[in-house]
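Two records follow; treat each independently.
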Amino acid sequence: MVRMRAILMVALVAFFATGCFEVEQSIELKRDMSGTANFKLGVDMEPMVIIMAKVQKEMSGDKSPLTAAEIAAAKADFKKNEKKSSTTTKEDPRKEAEGGLPPGVKLLDVSVAEKEFGVTTNMKFAFDKLSSLVGVKLGKKKEGEGPADPTKKSVIDTPFDGLEISETASTISIHTKPQNPADKVKSEAGEQGPPMDADTEKMMNDAFKNMRVAWKITAPFEVVSSNATRKEGNTLIWEYDFAKLQKLGSSKKGMDDMGVKVTYKK
């Protein structure tokens, strides 16, 4: 069972760069419902590095807690392997998004910042109408560039999926469900092998426990009602940790109570 767990964890690390996630979607609206949108995805591999070291230690028959020296050695080994696997020629990050843009959406900017144990990607889009964002799909190449690399999957390839907009004569309502990266990772784990045992699932949950997901909407309208976590000026902010995302996804009531919801007066 320990060996199966190790194989599963290695497969997930290689396939998804699984780690602790920071996800943020933000929208800035104009009165005509055009505007800009940002998508931020940060991946921190440090928790997974420690989990893998723990699994490897258990495989040797030692179930004692990791020492500071063992954690330091695991981190050093990860950095060494990352350096060996990196290439000198890096693909333009704009290609990750430009091929999957629907009509009415334009990619304005992409930036990629590498960290000690991870990477943060920021993308900025302009849209003619808010509903067009639903069709944004990452990782899709432009026509004529050949098929996308199936080994380069993203935990969130449709960052604005589920976005719903409804209007009446006097109001505009926006509703969406924050995406939980852990759901896709666990789904892939199920495809990689047998169902996870309780210990493996606990390890996965431990890797995600510091995950942060946020939604932000800035609009020049009066707020009639919203369930935002907090407000900064004209910006409404919804914030989720791993526990809150798990509760949100467990039932329709969770979605109704904790999903992103706001109604504006025109």
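The next record belongs to a different protein.
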Amino acid sequence: MFTGCGTALVTPFRPDFSLDEAALRRLVQRQCAAGIDFLVPVGTTGESPTLTAHEQRRVVEITVEEARQTKTPVVAGAGGNNTAHVIEMARDFQEIGADGILSVAPYYNKPTQEGLYQHYKALAAAISLPVILYNIPGRTGVNIETSTVVRLAEIDNIAGVKEASGNISQMAAVLAAVPPRFLVLSGDDAITIPLMSLGGKGVISVVANEIPAEMVRLTKLCLEGDFAAAREIHNKYFHLIEANFVETNPGPAKAAMALMGLLEPVFRLPMVAPKPENLAKIRAALEAVGLIQKVYAAR
């Protein structure tokens, strides 16, 4: 269900900083029309730390409602550093109709590997949905080590891991040790092809907010073993992938989508719009692949 390309959806806001439900519906409809394999609302890219509990629920509700039209699976983000609260969120999203849960490793309190194992074990036991671990030590301050992932892979409804450690050797070690049913997904667009060449099954993508059909095609080619054709797509959009991370995600991605006319360029503090010089890089990357028209200064 969760192979191929899943989009880590941004959350659109109105100029008054309220949730833009109409824009969210349009974004989900655009993704589904492009044939996206699955959708991931209220994750890091969705600015979940600044959403209220009601808003998080509403984003998942809207995503599920729209995705049902095309039977597109929805993996809702439910993570945090309070296990009881994470379980409460996950149960709520299960009740709404999500098809799976993506859960980031607990941050700030830096649990031990045993603490990580017990956290995810408790979450998996509390719900019937598949759980995808999310390893991003650059944000959380803790790495889900290979041995811990292997232990967790023994739990029936822990279905996989989103790997954003940047450590290809660790990803290779995980792939060599987990059972075939366990999915290893890239959490970094730039290393999707390397990870899939080792046996990874897809990506939870930021750039798919801008180019969903192209990222679906790239992952499909990788799954078919046609890495040469996948590289052509990767090379074409590589500078856009880079531009999405010229500042902290999701600032650049939302700025790019605003330039594309998909949403208002509104962020909730502490997230802010990219600096002018970085916005120029984002615009140039979009222009280079024809996603916006080049604007010439008046002579």
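Discussion point: The chain has twelve helices and eight strands. How would you locate this feature using only the token line?
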